[in-house]
């Protein structure tokens, strides 16, 4: 992104700057970092900033007198007043969790707009609430809890599960902790100090995450960082002097950074790759509008028979789902198969994470096969080569269940995704007793989908 030697504000976002940013987003080189100022929720007293509302509710729950506290109220102010009354620190976290459990806020529109930008695969949040996670699940996974959610804590270092290029789900990383009954998230300024110190510690840093923060463009949207905390966060994320040359950019999109003359002066003199946009919600709205506009030509060009969009399965199998059993190497074909089945309105599940170890994992898979509506084993050249693998145990569980079924009952529906000969397939004899459907590359045919729809309708009748 081309920048002059100055921090630019909203008016400096010309067409070239937007075009650069959108190109980087499409290349998965941008990480949004979400702050509390982006979160306005509908309460019984109207649309309110979530964290102001929480501070007021927490003060009431702890019987803290707010008459002498600054307005608008903050959680830190309430915590300080509570401790001044000799209150137990731990009680505030428990009360706050109870408050959040008692309400069901809809994800704010800006979060839903960010979730709709599917080129974002890694989200970092400095908030502890679940609204970003909920927005992603709503917009990308049909409301199923499929997003990967990770929370940092100084006493429990949690990093990304894999290199970013290998992530299979959208990831939400709670950098300052996640809502809990324990004091494992930032509620006060003292908590913030502890988290920042821990994140800079050699042995407590989530290395994979900070590698991504260092080498990607960052969008700090709705941040409430004060002057020095903003400087420190940038320095911590980039892992070198801010005056050193770098080929990535940071954007502050909030209501207060541009008004902080000292911070702006510092960025102008030291961090010339940083831009400042004058409002979080307006930034997200314009970003969403511009990104969506760039998708329309591609969507228009798509033929009616174009591949369906793959939605990762939920972590827990829905009731009466169709269970797909597969070898890890066949994942791309299985994703296409699931996308086609989803588009036909069929509830489908497979184990995306493939942990394949431990008694708990095995019990979960065994139980899922025991309650699924139908079992679809995916047969391929890969399954032919692998004489010993976990999918064969899944096949065995399915055969065991069939032994308790009436003769002629339909349960196992084998699918072959390549030219593996049916007669030579290394599968249980029970698989060979039923018709094997050929779906090259995992592309579900109308006939296959229609048969599954009829079977599911008959089962639910």
Your description of this structure?
- The protein has helices at about 15-25, 50-60, 75-85, 90-100, 110-115, 130-140, 190-200, 205-215, 225-240, 260-270, 280-300, 330-345, 360-370, 380-385, 390-400, 430, 445-460; strands at about 30-35, 40-45, 45-50, 120-125, 150, 170-175, 215-220, 250-255, 275, 320-325, 350, 375-380, 415, 435-440.
- The relative contact order is 0.10.
- α13 (about 360-370) packs parallel to α15 (about 390-400).
- The protein folds into three domains: about 10-40 and about 110-285, 3-Layer(aba) Sandwich (Rossmann fold), CATH 3.40.50; about 40-100, no CATH class; about 320-460, Toll/interleukin-1 receptor homology (TIR) domain (Rossmann fold).
- It has 17 helices and 14 strands.
- β10 (about 320-325), α12 and β11 (about 350) form a beta-alpha-beta unit.
- With about 450 residues, it is of the alpha/beta class.
- About 40% of the residues lie in helices and about 10% in strands.
- The termini are far apart.
- The strands form three sheets. A seven-stranded parallel β-sheet has the order 5-6-4-1-7-8-9. Strands 11-10-12-13-14 form a five-stranded parallel β-sheet, sandwiched between helices.
- The longest helix has 22 residues, at about 280-300.
């Amino acid at each position: 992104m081309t920048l002059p030697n100055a921090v630019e504000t909203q008016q400096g976002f010309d067409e070239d700057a937007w075009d650069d940013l959108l190109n980087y987003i499409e290349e998965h080189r941008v990480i949004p970092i979400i702050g509390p100022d982006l979160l306005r929720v509908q309460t019984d007293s109207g649309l309110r900033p979530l964290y102001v509302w929480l501070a007021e509710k927490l003060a009431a729950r702890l019987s803290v007198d707010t008459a002498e506290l600054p307005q608008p109220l903050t959680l830190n102010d309430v915590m300080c007043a509570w401790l001044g009354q000799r209150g137990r620190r731990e009680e505030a976290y428990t009360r706050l969790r109870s408050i959040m459990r008692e309400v069901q806020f809809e994800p704010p529109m800006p979060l839903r707009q960010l979730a709709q930008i599917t080129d974002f695969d890694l989200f970092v949040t400095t908030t502890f609430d679940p609204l970003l996670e909920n927005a992603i699940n709503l917009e990308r996974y049909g409301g199923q809890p499929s997003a990967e959610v990770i929370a940092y804590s100084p006493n429990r270092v949690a990093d990304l599960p894999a290199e970013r290029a290998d992530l299979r789900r959208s990831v939400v990383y709670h950098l300052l902790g996640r809502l809990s009954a324990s004091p494992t998230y930032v509620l006060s300024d003292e908590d913030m100090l502890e988290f920042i110190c821990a994140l800079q510690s050699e042995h407590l840093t989530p290395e994979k995450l900070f590698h991504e923060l260092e080498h990607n463009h960052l969008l700090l949207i709705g941040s409430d960082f004060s002057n020095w905390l903003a400087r420190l966060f940038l320095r911590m994320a980039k892992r070198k002097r801010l005056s050193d040359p770098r080929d990535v950019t940071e954007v502050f999109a909030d209501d207060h950074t541009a008004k902080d003359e000292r911070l702006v002066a510092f960025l102008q003199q030291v961090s010339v790759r940083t831009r400042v946009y004058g409002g979080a919600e307006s930034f997200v709205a314009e970003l969403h509008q511009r990104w969506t506009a760039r998708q329309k030509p591609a969507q228009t060009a798509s033929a009616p028979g174009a591949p369906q969009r793959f939605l990762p399965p939920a972590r827990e199998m829905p009731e009466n789902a169709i269970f797909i059993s597969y070898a890890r190497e066949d994942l791309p074909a299985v994703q296409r198969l699931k996308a086609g089945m989803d588009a036909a309105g069929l509830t489908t599940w497979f184990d995306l994470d493939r942990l394949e170890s431990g008694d708990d994992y095995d019990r979960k898979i065994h139980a899922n096969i025991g309650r699924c509506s139908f079992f679809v084993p995916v047969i391929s050249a890969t399954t032919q080569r692998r004489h010993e693998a976990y999918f064969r145990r899944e096949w065995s569980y399915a055969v065991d269940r069939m032994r308790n079924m009436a003769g002629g009952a339909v349960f196992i529906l084998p699918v072959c995704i390549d030219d593996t000969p049916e007669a030579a397939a290394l599968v249980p004899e029970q698989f060979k007793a039923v018709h094997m459907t050929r779906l090259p590359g995992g592309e579900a045919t109308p006939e296959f989908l229609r048969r599954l729809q009829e079977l599911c309708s008959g089962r639910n009748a």
